Amino acid sequence: MSRVISWIPTAAGSDFDLDNLPLGIFSPPAEAPRPGIAIGDYVADLSSLFEAELIDEATLDGARVLNGFLARGRAHWSALRTRLQYLFGEASTLQERVLVESSLVPRAEATMHLPFEVGDYVDFYSSIEHASNVGRLFRPANPLGDNYRYVPLGYHGRTSTIVLDGTLISRPSGQRKARDAAAPSFGPTAALDFELELGFVAGPGNAHGAPIPIEAVRNHVYGCVILNDWSARDIQAWESVPLGPLLGKSFATSISPWVVSLEALEPFRVENRIPDPPPLAHLQTDERWAYDIDLEVLLESQAMRAHRFPPMPLARPNFRGMYWHVAQQLAHLTSNGSRVRPGDLFGSGTISGSEPEMLGCLLERTRGGTDAFELPGGERRTYLENGDTVIMRARASAGERRIGFGELRGTIVG
Amino acid sequence: MSRVISWIPTAAGSDFDLDNLPLGIFSPPAEAPRPGIAIGDYVADLSSLFEAELIDEATLDGARVLNGFLARGRAHWSALRTRLQYLFGEASTLQERVLVESSLVPRAEATMHLPFEVGDYVDFYSSIEHASNVGRLFRPANPLGDNYRYVPLGYHGRTSTIVLDGTLISRPSGQRKARDAAAPSFGPTAALDFELELGFVAGPGNAHGAPIPIEAVRNHVYGCVILNDWSARDIQAWESVPLGPLLGKSFATSISPWVVSLEALEPFRVENRIPDPPPLAHLQTDERWAYDIDLEVLLESQAMRAHRFPPMPLARPNFRGMYWHVAQQLAHLTSNGSRVRPGDLFGSGTISGSEPEMLGCLLERTRGGTDAFELPGGERRTYLENGDTVIMRARASAGERRIGFGELRGTIVG
Questions:
Q1: pTM, entire model
Q2: What is the 3-state secondary structure (H, E, C) of B349-397?
Q3: Alpha-carbon dihedral of residues A50, A52, A54, A57, nearest 10 degrees?
Q4: What's the pLDDT tens digit per position in B362-393?
Q5: Domain at B389, CATH number
Q6: Nearest residue in chain B measured CA to CA from A243
Q7: B7 in a domain, yes or no?
Q8: Is-catalytic flag, B130?
Q9: Is residue B288 located within the same domain as residue B326?
């Protein structure tokens, strides 16, 4: 099958080609937020395409968040995608192209906004390598716990502090206690960390009391973004028993602005990791839910910027190796009758692999802040310093197909 | 000082007298939801009072939730209260009374709705007696943990399953593992419990990165409701290490419909419990934040209903003895820069006292489900059975003043 090429300049071969078409909320210069689709170096204004009667998805007309569209479900998501692939592709008419062209805003001139309102945010713990590494530091007697291989573990995170790519991250203060101190003290965290994750975004959702069976989950997940679950390890360690993390996480969670649909990720679905032992029946499926997505996290310090060193890669894990997948997580989360709403966010948990260059947070890389590493220029790091920028990227590719998530950046300020 | 008496019949001496004036969202028969004030056996329709130009608080006109009013802040809350006390009191004119009277709907005919939208819900762990009792069951080596007396512990709960008084509670299913079983199994919880709590409701809130100092908290809490943090103890026990409770709690949280303001509770403020050791500086205040509120939880089984036994009181704790108060909890929660929004909900955690008749959940009363107790008619209980109704009440009184919260009911269905 020969692939369709977009007539829109810069689209072909870019992270935002016809195969991708991620959704976001953007403002053209000095205008109000509205939905858009990234295509090459442009954003296509979907309100403008609606007004020109090129698309008929009214939930996108002038909307300031995608929640209405997320609620519409898979058939509508797919119809919009098919329509846009036609309009941006080789078969569209000259008249259509003129209208599409007038809807395009250069991405460099677009201001991005949070793409959806999050009702509930659950951060999971999908990587057994991450869970094992963290467990060895905090619970050496039984690092993984008895439940890990049965329960897709997670906790509710704070929704009010979910922020967009580029938002400055203020170093949080909190209580932390040194192992040999008699009492805790209050002050800025000395163990500020990132967690490299993907965040999945809910579609229509379910009624209270009506669980989503695992075979139905594909109708309930629209797509995903890159997610940085910023963590203050000292605050987290002191507060977490017995109720789990709270202030060690609640100060900020960053997400990337473009929501990549599961439909765009179809070509990159691969065989699930084989769980051992097999999960309980309601968490079993023959459907493939693993995705071959390459991730990358990089660090750039203030000194590195000054000396024009390029950002230093810290880890390059792949998402396919996660122990638990999002279908299991949603089936689990709703198995007690709990309700999921459009725009709910599910963090994967830190994406780590089995090799040293696949560790998705500094806690793992520096073994709890004890093994420092060196940056270009000779600075040393265990945890993040003020002025550090953390850059996350994700991309899937197979043959000519390539899907980029764009970047997620955050800089620490004191 | 002689007290003002309301001219509205049934108000004087009731739980909803002039001193109370709790806010809620109600529908008159076959009409749309709107804000109302409980007064005696009536609800005063605030939209109707606004349209009659008797009050000027536009955020209440036709609003389907109280969030807009909650965002207005203390001066506006107080102005409305003063105005209503005038209108419902002895000094109002005949013309005003005619208009007020036409706004009254019998409470028995009003359908109540969730009074506010909850952005984030944190459930705290304020009772040191409760924390000690639960700790002895699950962590006997160190029941209270090293952090309890320093950190106002809590976790984020699910907002999508916060439901109103009267909502039927479906027995949740989930994973649970018997101590001697090789593996967990999935099925209905065998350890369904209530937790008797108060829930505090946020006012204006703060900007991301700008903590609310403890001395400013009174501007940021509008009032409170009764809260039942339904819990499935077997599911909770199996999932809680290391990330805290999730599915053991997320299936339902019930709240009472009438929000009692802190201003109404002013006469019942009492000296704070003296913490030992003194908390860190940002959690210290000379201001009194303890409230002398009597609570009660009762149980009525299906058989008891059939035999017309009255509900059986299970516990009668008082709120004044809590170790941590809501001012400390909000100062703590925002101390890392985290953001609170109008309508955010803060559960107190189970309210238990030091005596056997003050235990606010069955886990404590039955020592982890091992000590059964008898109901009138001879049935035995460790945890809740299908058909059981849990009734919670709260009331404060001092001399002639009396403030009732009304009731919070929930019945278990299979």
A1: 0.97
A2: CCCCCCCHHHCCCHHHHCCCCCCCEECCCCCEECCCCCCCEEEEEEEEE
A3: 10
A4: 999 999 999 999 999 999 999 999 999 999 99
A5: 3.90.850.10
A6: B244
A7: no
A8: yes
A9: yes
Mean pLDDT to the nearest integer, A361-375? 97
Rounded CA gap, A162 and B123, in Å? 20
How many angstroms away from the CA of B264 is the closest CA of chain A? 29
Both B231 and B324 in one domain: the answer is: yes
Q: Do A336 and B235 touch (CB under 8 A)?
A: yes
Count of the separate structural domains present in chain A = 2
* Residues facing A162 on adjacent strands: A253
Please, is A13 exposed, middle or buried when counting C-beta atoms within 10 Å of its C-beta (0-12, 13-18, 19+)? exposed
A161 → closest Cβ in B163, B241, B339: B339
Average pLDDT, chain A: 97
Instruction: Show which residues of A are catalytic.
Output: 130
DSSP A135-181: HHHH-TTSTTTTTTTTS--EEEE-STTEEETT--EEPPEEEE--TT-
Question: Strands B231-232 and B192-193, how do they pair?
Answer: antiparallel
* Yes or no, beta carbons of A155 and B333 under 8 Å apart: no
Within-domain flag for A207: yes
Minimal Cβ distance to B151: which of A163, A175, A251: A175
Q: Are A402 and A13 in contact (CB under 8 A)?
A: yes
Using an 8 Å CB-CB cutoff, list chain A residues near B155. 155-156, 243-244, 246
Same domain, A147 and A43: no
Looking at the structure, tell me whether residues B132 and B160 fall in a common domain.
Answer: yes
Among B113, B139, B162, residue at a domain's last position: B113
Residue ranges for chain B with pLDDT beneath 50: 1
pLDDT at A180 over 80: yes
Q: Are residues B153 and B102 both part of a single domain?
A: no
- CA–CA distances in Å: residue B194 to residues A339, B390, B412: 20, 8, 11
A232–B175 C-beta distance less than 8 A: no
For residue range A183-216, what is the model confidence (pLDDT) as tens digits?
999 999 999 999 999 999 999 999 999 999 999 9
Query: Distance of alpha carbon B97 from its chain centroid, rounded?
Result: 32
Q: Of B113, B140, B162, at which residue does a domain stop?
A: B113
Q: Which residues of A touch B241 (CB under 8 A)?
A: 145, 147, 242
Domain carrying residue A51: 23-113
> Of the listed B76, B130, B208, B282, which one is catalytic?
B130
The answer to whether residue A315 is domain-embedded is: yes
ipTM: 0.97
CA distance A125 to A147: 12
> Are residues A176 and A289 both part of a single domain?
yes
Q: Report pLDDT for A192.
A: 98
In the prediction, which pLDDT does A1 show?
A: 43
Cβ count within 10 A of residue A9: 12
The answer to whether residues A95 and A135 belong to one domain is no
| Nearest residue in chain B measured CA to CA from A182 | B146
Contact A117, A69 (CB under 8 A): no
Residue A9 included in any domain: no
